[in-house]
Amino acid sequence: MENYHIGSLITQGLKKKPSWKPAWRKAKAKPSYDVIIIGGGGHGLATAYYLAKNHGIKNVAILEKGPIGLGNTGRNTTTIRSNYFYPESVALYDLSLRLYENLSKELNFNIMFSQRGMMMVAHTPTQMEICNRIANAMVINGVDGELLTARQVMDKIPLWNKKKDARYKCHGGIMQNRGGVARHDAVAWGYARAADGFGVDIIENCMVEDFLLEAGRVKGVITSKGEIRADRIGIAAAGGTPYLVAKLGQNLPILDYALQAFVTEPIKPCLDVVVLSLGTGTYVLQSDKGEIVFGGGLDRIPTHTQRGNLPAQETVVSGLLEMFPSFGQLKLLRQWAGVVDVVPDSSPLIGPIDTPGVYINCGWGTGGFKAIPAGGWLLAHLIAKDEHHFISEPFDLNRFNTGRLIDEATGSGIAH
Amino acid sequence: MQIFECPFCGERNETEFHFLTEAGKERPEPAEEVSDSRWAEYLYLHKSPRGKTSEIWVHIPCGEFFILQRDTVTREVYQSISLQDYQTKKV
Ligand SMILES: Cc1cc2nc3c(=O)[nH]c(=O)nc-3n(C[C@H](O)[C@H](O)[C@H](O)COP(=O)(O)OP(=O)(O)OC[C@H]3O[C@@H](n4cnc5c(N)ncnc54)[C@H](O)[C@@H]3O)c2cc1C
Ligand SMILES: [Zn+2]
Question: Most buried residue, A11, A34, A272, A276, by CB count within 10 Å?
């Protein structure tokens, strides 16, 4: 793998025709591998990287039905935080945050990780009590969390709606200073490049259609490019996972929904934290290019198409304008949707399934970008050792049999 | 914007409706004989089909629960059947 550094930047910059090599090879599928990963999103790519790096398993293929990183990984609003409620969740998401903190260096690829802070704004004394509860949970779980007065919130977001007739006045808030954003494509590309550097084959435009089974064990997959064999298979296909697992005769506690996001024209820097309003459910940040990026809740109709509906758009946009009336002058440049895999307790599914040799990492729903390093780390552990890492154990599918759900939907309020 | 049909009120805006679960599940009984995994399956697991599906929805303003048949890919809406008609096999 070509190492990127200041010297190479200068030499390449001075050349008439820079001779950068492609960051990863266009690999052709071999007939068999030690491990196959289905899904070239962040979680699949990270899994392959950690299989090679942490466990020395390098004879690995990633099979992606389109180009890598264009699923939810390339469609999300890039917010990273670990301010969850339950200790199990915090262990998971904070592992991820800690890995993110060193990721640019580790991958030798700038993922543009910016810990600008993630702030939730409360509008009533009751919501402030909820913030208190979250802050306490965060501190008990060993994560940074700080309560803010209305004054402190206003100092951070001077453009907030201060009109007399504002529907959601600011009453205070809560801040996670280590939270922030990263460039989503760079996370996918950085892992892809590093995995490729270990010899992992990234095979794009290769749709997995079915599985090869022998004596009840998985022996490989049937793809649009033919059969590829492997004894161990990791599925990290987000909204595509239920469809694949159904081929093995199993249903999952997942429903697919569309989740939308929006981007305005770029403007000068005016917002340097990620802001979520507990009143409107809309969250917003400013990208490095200056665009205002925002989103909100799910579309409420289960679907498998990457298309959003109008009522959800109305809710999210009106939420934004209530929070920041001046953004009403901006033109909306783009709007899009991703198909997110939603689990009843809003926590992911990590673990083996009924078919021996198959492991899943999915169910991240509206909030799995922040979890990519941890999701990859834990699925790699599971595949390499055929047993859970202690952090992924609580997220096993058997929690639905025991009833030990990790209900973050009610625990920490809002996703993303 | 989509229009769904409430068997009681007729055609209404999608925002007036709430999705509950996939239709066609049967509550396993008797309770003493139902294993944890069978019960979890009943409570939580979904087929999440691509294409035609039957689901239970409620029309919030009038409280009518009904079966909505629609397509999860094209978003085409086929028909609404009141749960009563469905249970008495009139449909
Ligand atoms: C609008 C929006 C905003 C979001 N905002 C945030 C946020 O701010 N913060 C946050 O943490 N999370 C956010 N999320 C959630 C986050 O994007 C996802 O949880 C995360 O990207 C999931 O990563 P993944 O690798 O599991 O899935 P994906 O990136 O979707 O990757 C799955 C891959 O599997 C491939 N695949 C599927 N089926 C097959 C098959 N049969 N054969 C081969 N390949 C297949 C797909 O093509 C896809 O590339 C948001 C999501 C959306 C849609
Ligand atoms: Zn009605």
Answer: A276
pLDDT in tens, A200-228: 999 999 999 999 999 999 999 999 999 99
Q: Where are the domains of chain A?
A: 23-82+85-108+184-253+345-411, 118-177+255-342
Across the interface, do B19 and A344 touch by the CB < 8 Å criterion? no
**Per-residue pLDDT tens digits for A238-261:** 999 999 999 999 999 999 999 999
* Ligand 1, atom nearest to A244 Cα: 41
Whether the Cβ atoms of residue A264 and residue A330 lie closer than 8 Å to each other: yes
The C-alpha atoms of residue A78 and residue A42 are separated, in whole angstroms, by 12
- Whether omega for the bond prior to residue B30 falls within 30 degrees of 0, making it cis, is yes
Cβ–Cβ gap B2/A301 under 8 Å: yes
Nearest CA-CA distance, residue B85 and chain A, Å: 24
> With respect to CATH, is domain A118-177+255-342 assigned 3.30.9.10?
yes
Ligand 1 site, residue A260, Cβ cutoff 6 A: yes
A60 contacts A194 by C-beta, under 8 angstroms: no
Under CATH, which number does the domain A23-82+85-108+184-253+345-411 receive?
Answer: 3.50.50.60
pLDDT of amino acid A281: 94
Q: Could you read off the pLDDT of B23-66 as tens digits, one per residue?
A: 999 999 999 999 999 999 999 999 999 999 999 999 999 999 99
Stated as kind and residue range, the H or E segment containing A313 is helix A310-323
Does B55 sit within 8 Å of A309, measured CB to CB?
no
* Residues that place a CB less than 5 A from ion ligand 2: B 6, 8-9, 59, 62, 64
Pairing between strand A283-286 and A349-352?
Answer: unpaired
